[in-house]
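Human:
Take a look at this sequence-structure pair and walk me through the tokens.
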Amino acid sequence: MSKNLTARSEDYSKWYNELVVKADLAENSGVRGCMVIKPYGYAIWEKMQAELDRMFKETGHQNAYFPLFVPKSMFEAEEKNAEGFAKECAIVTHYRLKNDPDKPGKLMVDPNAKLEEELIIRPTSEAIIWSTYKGWVQSYRDLPLLINQWANVVRWEMRTRLFLRTAEFLWQEGHTAHATRDEAIEESEKMMHLYAEFAENFMAMPVIKGLKTETERFAGADETYCIEALMQDGKALQAGTSHFLGQNFAKAFDVKFATPEGKQEYVWGTSWGVSTRLMGALVMTHSDDQGLVLPPNLAPIQVVIVPIYKSDEQLYEISTAVYSVILALKKLNVSVKYDDRTTQKPGFKFAEWELKGVPIRIAVGPKDLNNGTFEVARRDTLSKEIVSKDGIEIYICDLLLQIQKDLFDRALYYRDTHVTKVNSFEEFKSVLESKGGFVSAHWDGTPETEEKIKDLTKSTIRCVPLDRLEEAGSCIFSGAPSVGRVLFAKAY
């Protein structure tokens, strides 16, 4: 199987686009800016979804579903949110087509089928959900309200890339209501920590937890918590956000509750989400010039077994020997694929599963049967070992754990060696251009300085790290006083 992937060092963007398509994750569709997620790609997303869904439910959240369409007047109710998403909105104005009298066989919008009120296709669901919460919340007994939705949203992006930025994408969005400000802040922080746990334990992707600046904050939020990851090309990627909404949406949609004392008060809200953008993050964090490298905890196929044979009799003997190993691995919850296709040669299969990032490949031939051994290859290091068949299932389980850890450690080392402290704007620009990664620098806290740095360098403040030290200094751009460093980077 010919991979013909562009080298990362030659053109990282081209490498990424080629890999997503050639590894059968996704492809562009007939709809501008939208993608088709193929079965192998969707299988990875399903694993992500399953783990996150389990984590949400363990923290008391329930799933619900809300409409795709939002009446324009409802969308406008919270002004900052509406303004923030206005340029990305797709709008439904009519509800019917009819035959075009001037063009036989063609259809046209029926001018008599204009909607009384235009409908926004949700770019996010705060408006429709908070308008619903008004009927769900009456008393303090109804709180907290902890709801999550798995859905699709539409944001009319002009420049699109598979998984990273598409006009339609899949995601989950949590929306919660609380009796007190402290409870809502606690919820916002809890979900940020949950996202970080998922990214590090399942994606093997280290993240930095922090707060967005006012400029970068979610439209309609009082505070935005985030997790930021670093890709292999030195660019940052926002991997998840959790927003403390204050009482902004509660006031916009009149969501009140009766306190134990009988007083009417507005609830406090949060929203939080991750999307199929995590698929792009997974690809770019670990993969190499040979193809995908998947962490075992999210790989749809953790082990592939390839028989090497010259006759049907040899294939039968290998299949018989391998059967017990497959059963033993499945009992240990290891996902196994036995690739006994007769239409492809072993070399083709090796290249295909290497491209698709399967963590472990086992090759078995007649000599292996005679010796009671299997050849075990690791995808992450491309190394091979000869392993005894006896007890191989335990060896494989331990190896999967080791690969998961090694992938995280490798990504962490890259991230940590690409966080650079600078103390001048010249040094700042030099690091951005020559090294990339996160640049730790003093900032005076003003949106004006933030915007000027962005205009001059195309870098943004990714976050104010939660664990940053108080450190008096001078802003690298304005020279004004600073109370601590923030992380800048060029980003996806």
Notes: The chain is about 35% helix and 25% strand. The CA atoms of residues 96 and 113 lie 6 Å apart. The radius of gyration is 26 Å.
